[in-house]
Amino acid sequence: MKLVVNLGKIKELRKASKLSLNDMSKQLGFKSPNGYFYLETGKTKISAEMLANIALILNVPIDDLFMEVESKP
Predict the structure, then answer these.
(1) pLDDT category, 71, cuts 50, 70, 90?
(2) Contacts of 51 (CB under 8 A, 6+ apart)
(3) What domains are there in the chain, each with its CATH number?
(4) Where is the HTH cro/C1-type domain (predicted)?
(5) 8 Å CB contact between 65 and 55
(6) Predicted model pTM
């Protein structure tokens, strides 16, 4: 098993917190919502620092943003 960022959960938590893509983008310092959208959809890799900031904004432990997947042999 290995851990990967759970992008679906990040999106669910953002929506549950009533934060728009624009809200998240601004709080994370992006100039447009596209920067954050690319992170949330997996088009851009999320750095450890960015993931920590996302966890803070969503008010969850960073561990909650990961999921286990089977690693290929």
Answers:
(1) confident
(2) 5, 62, 65
(3) 2-69 (1.10.260.40)
(4) 10-65
(5) yes
(6) 0.90
Tokens read off for 38: 């690319």
d(CA 20, CA 34) in angstroms, rounded, equals: 12
pLDDT in tens, 22-50: 999 999 999 999 999 999 999 999 999 99
**Burial of 10 (C-beta count, 10 Å sphere; 0-12/13-18/19+):** buried
Contact 1, 68 (CB under 8 A): yes
Amino acid at 14: R
Please give the pLDDT value at position 40.
95
